[in-house]
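hiii, so i know i said id send this last week but things got crazy w the move. better late than never?? heres the sequnce for the chain we talked about at the cafe, plus the structure i predicted for it. fair warning i was half asleep when i ran it
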Amino acid sequence: MGTWLQTRATRKDPQARFEAKWKLVQLLYRRGWDKQRIIDRIGIEKGVLQDVLQSLLQGEVLALQKLLSKRFGVIPAELAATIAAANAAQLDVWLNLVLEAPSLDAIFKSTAH
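okay and structure toks below
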């Protein structure tokens, strides 16, 4: 069953409905939808949506940091702070570069911070 249909089918079960909406938010976020468009699409309160998107962003930060440390060793503190402060679009650019870049400089010097 599609995620949207799951949210409709769980009207009487608040926990299941929240979980279905969470999955839908994750899917839409990964496809590049902004917060307002997601709110308009599934009717989530802004506070809940903000928490969901923040969790997803933190997950991407951690994934990028882990990939970088596996490939290049210890990440300088300044670079870790830059990564932690980045928006979703910038993180996506860096995540796409991390597997093929020959160095940290090749990833971060060629992109705007």
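btw The radius of gyration is 17 Å. thought thatd interest u
miss u guys!!
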